[in-house]
């Protein structure tokens, strides 16, 4: 058994200096889109009050993280981020959503109000929107101000997550604050915004460098007080200047694609979510909505290595639909029963529906909804990586290798 002498001595010393904070286990926040959350989910372990170990699924967006959403124009980046932010915020008393809207075609107030589901009063309390004076430096200043206010008034923002660490200690966190940048592609340093001539001459590499440096300063602030940063970015065409196509250095970008503002905002991200249009939906067919299917892939995740995409249903009128997204996931994975206009969620075919009537049945028939969820959840759980057993096997294999006779003999 390991001797904890050095660890104990170190903790005692830093405690005397008033600097004894150690990392706490991550806590994730479900987005309201269950198939999306399980895609980024993992098994965590806590020690209960009686001393027993308990595994649970930690699902959603990690506290204090930077999440980048990338896609081509029109796929629904801003819409999805708006819905996710609202779904996280509504579960906490103090959560505020700060949004820096740089693009002229960003969501307007009416659309944001509709997508969030907030009342006028709650919308006013929850949102702080800015659409002018947005620069790289001003974003840092605002995040730093939020950080300082939460840190100086910690007791007003802390909450018990209801989870415990592997020693049995309650995991306490700051309630999440959400900060949205829409979009990273349009983000510029202050001197470039104020000087049109300078911006016109050299706004590429230099502005990317400034953005990179500022992001490096922002990231540590996020984790300390649980600020979740959503950065919306575009996938742009990478114009080739030579006849021979060059290999893309970013593995999840296709040949001929690029991401604005350099690589720093990319490699600092805890998650990068790529959204791709996977098919058009017509109101007279299928789900009876005008919209499209979106494939969402966690092309970068520090929680899981799963790269398989999941499918979301984007209803142009009402935003992304969580239940239709689950249905599309089941349909895509051939986990429904029957066919045509007579589908069923269960093998006994007791709970029948058609694609066009599904939303009405979910909304009006609790028994049908429960039966559907009882089919969906086991499938989603089966997609989560379970690394504990594999890791322990790797430890055993490593020890076995090191015990090979003569391994260290000259």
Please describe what this structure looks like:
Residues 197-201 have low confidence and may be disordered. The chain is an alpha/beta fold. 38% of the residues lie in helices and 24% in strands. The strands form six sheets. The protein has a nine-stranded mixed sheet, sandwiched between helices. It has a three-stranded antiparallel sheet with strand order 18-19-20, with no helix packed on it. It has a two-stranded antiparallel ribbon with strand order 1-4. The two termini are 30 Å apart. It has 15 helices and 20 strands. The chain is globular and about 70 Å long.
Uncertain spans, ≥5 residues at pLDDT below 50? 197-201
The main sheet comes to: 9 strands, mixed
- Residue-averaged pLDDT: 87
Secondary structural class:
alpha/beta
- By DSSP, the count of extended strands is 20
Q: In angstroms, what separates the terminal alpha carbons?
A: 30 Å
Q: What is the general shape?
A: globular
Brief sketch in words of this structure:
With 410 residues, the chain is an alpha/beta fold. Helix content is 38%, strand content 24%.
SSE layout:
Elements: H1 5-16, E1 28-29, H2 34-39, E2 42-47, E3 53-58, E4 61-62, E5 66-71, H3 77-89, E6 97-101, H4 109-116, H5 120-126, E7 127-130, H6 136-152, H7 154-157, E8 158-164, E9 170-174, E10 177-182, H8 190-194, H9 196-202, H10 205-225, E11 227-234, E12 236-237, E13 257-258, H11 264-267, E14 271-281, E15 291-301, E16 310-315, E17 319-321, H12 322-332, E18 337-339, E19 342-344, E20 352-353, H13 358-364, H14 366-382, H15 387-402
Parallel strand pairs: 5-11, 5-14, 6-7, 6-10, 10-11
Antiparallel strand pairs: 1-4, 2-3, 8-9, 12-13, 14-15, 15-16, 16-17, 18-19, 19-20
């Amino acid at each position: 058994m390991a001797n904890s002498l050095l660890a104990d001595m170190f903790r005692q010393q830093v405690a005397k200096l008033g600097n004894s904070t150690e990392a706490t286990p991550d806590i994730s926040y479900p987005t309201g889109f269950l198939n999306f959350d399980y895609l980024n989910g993992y098994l965590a372990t806590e020690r209960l009050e009686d001393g027993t170990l308990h595994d649970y699924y930690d699902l959603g967006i990690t506290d204090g993280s930077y999440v980048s959403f990338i896609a081509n124009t029109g796929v629904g980046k801003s819409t999805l981020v708006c819905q996710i932010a609202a779904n996280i915020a509504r579960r906490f008393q103090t959560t505020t959503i700060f949004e820096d809207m740089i693009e002229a075609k960003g969501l307007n107030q009416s659309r944001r109000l509709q997508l969030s589901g907030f009342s006028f009063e709650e919308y006013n309390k929850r949102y702080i929107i800015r659409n002018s004076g947005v620069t790289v430096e001003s974003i840092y200043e605002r995040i730093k101000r939020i950080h300082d206010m939460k840190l100086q008034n910690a007791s007003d923002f802390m909450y018990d997550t209801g989870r415990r660490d592997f020693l049995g200690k309650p995991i306490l966190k700051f309630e999440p604050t959400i900060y949205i940048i829409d979009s990273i592609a349009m983000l510029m340093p202050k001197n470039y915004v104020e000087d049109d001539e300078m911006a016109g001459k050299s706004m590429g590499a230099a502005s990317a460098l400034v953005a990179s440096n500022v992001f490096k300063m922002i990231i540590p602030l996020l984790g300390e007080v649980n600020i979740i940063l959503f950065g919306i970015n575009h996938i742009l065409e990478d114009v080739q200047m030579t006849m021979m196509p060059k290999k893309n250095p970013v593995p999840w970008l296709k040949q001929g694609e690029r991401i604005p503002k350099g690589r720093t905002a990319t490699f600092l991200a805890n998650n990068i979510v790529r959204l791709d249009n996977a098919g058009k939906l017509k109101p007279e067919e299928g789900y009876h909505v005008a919209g499209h299917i979106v494939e969402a892939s966690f092309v970068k995740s520090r929680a899981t290595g799963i790269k398989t995409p999941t499918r979301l249903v984007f209803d142009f009128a009402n935003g992304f639909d969580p239940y239709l997204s689950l249905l599309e996931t089941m349909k895509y994975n051939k986990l429904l029963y029957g066919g045509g206009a007579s589908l069923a969620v269960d093998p006994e075919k007791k709970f029948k529906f058609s694609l066009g009537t599904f939303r009405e049945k979910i909304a009006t028939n609790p028994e049908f909804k429960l039966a559907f969820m009882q089919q969906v959840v086991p499938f989603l759980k089966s997609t989560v990586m379970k690394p504990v057993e594999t890791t322990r096997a790797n430890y055993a294999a490593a020890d076995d290798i090191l015990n090979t006779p003569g391994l260290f003999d000259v």
